[in-house]
Specification:
The complex is a heterodimer of chains A (185) and B (281).
Chain A: E1 2-6, H1 11-16, E2 22-31, H2 34-45, E3 58-60, H3 88-93, E4 98-101, H4 107-115, E5 119-122, H5 128-131, E6 135-142, E7 151-165, H6 172-180
Chain B: E1 2-5, H1 6-22, H2 26-38, H3 42-61, E2 71-79, E3 82-85, H4 89-103, E4 111-112, E5 119-120, E6 128-134, E7 139-146, H5 148-151, E8 155-159, H6 164-179, E9 187-195, H7 197-207, H8 219-232, E10 248-258, E11 263-270, E12 277-280
Helix pairs in contact in B: 1-4, 2-3, 6-8
The chains are: A alpha/beta (185), B alpha/beta (281).
Chain lengths: 185, 281
């Protein structure tokens, strides 16, 4: 059963999400990956504002390929989330509610997801052409000089994601693997 | 002596990278379709359907298969009877990368000063070029965009001789297990055994150029490929790590003689979007 969710995420919506859930997201997501995360944390450490009000928002770890004329965005699939692990707990403490990427998260991020009532979603990696179809608007809002790593504001409609880590400690990667693992000598 | 114009090399490299980023090779598509038939996990099947649909859209609409259009890795097999005219070989290749990544709307991912400022070079150069000099008077160019996600999960071990064949298997399986969902499974596992540290990794990368699932012609090596693939596909990681039977589409091993004291094993992982394209000039 697919769950349709309007962004920004509410605590009520997050409570309903369990690892493995198939979800369609609609609304605004912010795009930031490695270089932008580094800058955002540096901004927080020096007491400067973040490039957008992070409270309640969702960040997509992504660096698109360039758009052709007439396209909203180029290929737009997820990057490996683990590289953001050292930054994410701080952003969750600031009010970030959703993260979208691919790949495993650290113990620290999973604990912060529980503590701050957030959620981690994955998109199918390497399917960026398909992912771009559910993005209706894209604009660079900060750190333009970072090129593909700039912070963007996207509008998405029925953007397909899957819940990996929920507030109950569920982890689709661990559960899925345990289900299909065949013990070897 | 046969002359090849540097401009022809530039235009070929430009075309190859664009095609590689839009069009998944038939052998990769076939392997994905076979995996779709075998996979038992419903979520795993959904993932494979998405990957196949994505490949269809990319080819038809010329949108890159993946936004990570990679480092521009180029393998050259340069016939010793070739004379390059009108420019130098490596400049011609870099010019082709610059042109292809710009004209093809491919993402420029290369950064200079990797341990400090990490400044984007803006045109995806420099290419990573590997050249073999071979007999003949032709030039084979293989363009291989290599994404960062799978590359980051690669690894090298200098095993002790006592670990032997069993040690090789355990190491490769451990690398795949620890990589988990990160390299975008179902993956292709490139393995290089023997040589020196750099030779082993070159073998592993070269192994990724083989048609997916085509066994090594040496029966002993082919048997090792089958055994490791069997072990890897019992890990349960599955498509995109959501759980399933198909963690790898293939294990490709290349072997080279080594020092009597050494047993180098290199593992270079490739995501399901195993992109490469070649031309013979």
């Amino acid at each position: 059963m697919v769950k349709k969710i309007m962004l920004p995420l509410t605590d009520e919506a997050i409570k309903e999400l369990k690892a493995g859930d198939d979800v369609l997201l609609s609304g605004v997501v912010y795009v930031a990956r490695d270089a932008a995360h580094k800058r955002m944390i540096e901004a927080l450490e020096s007491g400067e504002p973040l490039p957008f009000d992070i409270r309640g928002q969702t960040i997509y770890y992504m660096g698109p390929s360039p758009a052709r004329r007439g396209q909203v965005i180029g290929s737009a699939g997820p990057t490996t989330s683990g590289r953001m692990d050292s930054y994410s707990p701080r952003l969750l403490a600031e009010g970030l509610k959703g993260m979208i990427g691919k790949g495993m998260r650290s113990r620290g991020v999973k604990d912060a997801i529980k503590q701050y009532k957030a959620v981690y979603f994955a998109v199918v990696g390497g399917a960026g052409a398909l992912a771009s179809r559910n993005i209706s608007k894209s604009e660079v809002i900060a750190y333009e000089e970072l090129g593909a790593e700039a912070v963007r504001r996207l509008e998405v409609a029925d953007f397909p994601v899957r819940v990996i880590n929920d507030i109950y400690g569920g982890d689709l990667y661990q559960e899925g693997k345990a289900r299909y693992r065949v013990d070897q000598e | 002596m046969r002359e090849i114009d540097a401009r022809e090399i530039t235009s070929t490299v430009s075309r190859l990278f664009q095609e590689a980023c839009y069009i998944l090779p038939d052998d990769v598509l076939n392997a994905l379709e076979r995996a779709r038939q075998i996979e038992e996990s419903p979520i795993g099947c959904e993932v494979l359907d998405i990957i196949l649909r994505n490949a269809d859209i990319s080819a038809k609409e010329q949108i890159p298969l993946c936004q990570d259009t990679g480092d521009a890795v180029v393998f050259l097999e340069l016939g010793q009877g070739v004379h390059i005219v009108g420019g130098d070989l490596y400049s011609a290749i870099n010019e082709g990368v610059r042109h292809g990544y710009t004209q093809g709307y491919l993402r420029k991912s290369m950064v200079s000063r990797p341990f400090s400022a990490r400044v984007n070079t803006k045109d995806n150069t420099p290419a990573i070029i590997h050249t073999d000099i071979v007999p003949g008077d032709r030039l084979r160019i293989i363009a291989k965009p290599k994404g960062g996600g799978a590359e980051n999960m690669s690894s090298l071990a200098m095993l002790s001789l006592a670990q032997g064949r069993r040690g090789v298997i355990d190491f490769v399986v451990k690398v795949v297990d620890e990589a988990g969902s990160n390299p975008c499974p179902p993956i292709i596992v490139g393995v290089g055994i023997g040589g020196t540290v750099e030779k082993a990794m070159m073998l592993a990368k070269r192994a990724l150029l083989r048609k997916v699932g085509e066994p090594n012609p040496d029966t002993e090596t082919a048997e090792l490929e089958r055994e490791i693939l069997g072990r890897v596909n019992k890990l349960g990681i599955g498509p995109m790590g959501y759980g399933g039977r198909i963690t790898a589409l293939a294990v490709h091993i290349e072997v080279f003689p080594t020092h009597m004291a050494s047993l180098p094993v290199a593992v270079n992982l490739e995501c399901h979007s195993c992109r490469h394209r070649e031309a013979l000039l």
